[in-house]
Each structure stands twice: as C-alpha cells, then as structure tokens.
Amino acid sequence: MKTILFPAAERGTADYGWLKPNYYFSFAQYHDNQKVHFGLLRVLNDDFIAGGGGFPTHPHDNMEIITIPFTGAIKHKDSTGGQGIIKAGDVQIMSAGTGVEHSEANASTTDPVTLFQIWVFPKERNISPRYNQKNFDASAREDKWQVVVSPTATDNALWINQNARLSLASLSSGKSLSYSNAFIGNGVFLVVIKGAIKVSEQQLGKRDALGIYETEQFTIEASADSELLAIEVPMH
C-alpha cells in the first residue's frame, strides 16, 4: 500500500469575500505542481459561501461534478432544465458531457453554506448532459459505508459516468472500519470531514486527506467520533 498525505493546513486558499475556498488540488489561481490530481480525481474544493453569495452562470464539459453540502442549502439551475435546492443530507451530481451551463447560489441571504465540490474525469466523453440529486439518511452510515455515488445500479446511489464510487461513513470513537475497492486497481482519496482517525500508522485530523493506492483494502481506526468521505477513482 502506498499513501500520499494532504494535510488540511497545506491546502490552497483564497478569499473572494462571499466565497472562501480551500483547495486540495490546483484550481483557479492556486497552483502546486505536486497537487494537480489524484488519479482521475481532478478537483476537491472545501467551500464556504456567505449568505447571498453564488456562482453566476458558467459552462462545463466532459466532467463529473458532485456537490455535497454540510450546512445550509445551495440553489442550482442548469441548461438541461435541472434545478433544485441542495441541502445538508443531499448529494448532487451533474455529468457535463457535451456541455452544460449552470449557476449555484446560496439559498439564504443570511446563513452560510459549507460544501465539498468534487470533479472526476469521465469514462466516456461527450455524453448527453445529466443532472440528479438525492437525499441520503445519515443513520444508514453509522459505523459503515453508505455508497452515495456509483456506476453500479445495485448500490442504490447516484449514477456516475466513471468506474468511481463515493461513500460516506460516521465512525464512532474506538471503532474500526475496512474499505474494499469496488474496482481493481483503483485508488481511494480518504477525507476526514471531522474527527480523528488512523490509517496504517498515519494519523489524520479534521479535513486532512490521504491518497491510498496499490492496495485493494485498508482499515481505518477512529480515535474520536468521525465523519469520513472515501472517493474511489481509477488511477489512470
């Protein structure tokens, strides 16, 4: 097993007033040659959006874009006709495919939104753009993995145009949890949303991340109540 540590304190940052992002990978005006992507995971932005703030209409193509809010709610509208309010507990995915324009805005004029925005390179290029969102019961991830994004229908998750899988878990202090790859040869970008864990003697705290590859399984030990996100992606 090989690992790459992405400490929370070493992420890229910016301050646009209404938007305060933390970048795990090079994005916008932040660039680090050592942090461009992890396999086919291209973007993971940890965003704070102030009340009344939002991204105006802008284009994307040939990218799988996932949004996971933690607090507040975000309003989405796109050129496929997809629109909705995405709140904590929901997960949204958009396959940009041949091209789509969309806007995202804080649904509140006063309360902030915190969320992860994730971009994964697609398996097939130039598919018809797609949009979907779903609410997931947090109790179904207590001390186990809850698959929220997958190309496999049996996972009862949002569909993604890639051999990739996103899973959430709430792991109690003192408990351990194993992760097994859905696809042979994939890597896993493991993010500690909050809490404290250990993976193969590597200690991780809130918002730290660990890229794990060249293994099909690993075990996590929680030293505090923790919330986790596992982003499994092809490495090539």
Order of helix and strand elements from N to C terminus = EEEEEEEEEEEEEEEEEEEEEE
Structural class: mainly beta
The amount of helix comes to under 10%
Give Rg in angstroms: 17 Å
The beta-strand count equals: 22
CATH level 1 name of the largest domain = Mainly Beta
Largest sheet: 7 strands, mixed
Estimate nothing, just give the exact number of structural domains: 2
- Physical arrangement of strands within the biggest beta sheet: 1-20-17-22-15-13-14
- The CATH topology of the largest domain turns out to be Jelly Rolls
* Share of residues in strands: over 45%
The rounded distance between the terminal residues' Cα atoms is 17 Å
| CATH homologous group name of the largest domain | Jelly Rolls
Write down the overall mean pLDDT.
96
**What's the assembly state of these chains?**
single chain
Low-confidence stretches: none
What do these coordinates show?
- The chain has about 240 residues and is mostly beta strands.
- The chain folds into 2 domains: about 10-135, Jelly Rolls; about 140-235, Jelly Rolls (Sandwich), CATH 2.60.120.
- The chain has no helices and 22 strands.
- The protein has a 7-stranded mixed beta sheet, with no helix packed on it. The protein has a 7-stranded antiparallel beta sheet with strand order 2-3-4-11-6-9-12, with no helix packed on it.
- The two termini are about 15 Å apart.
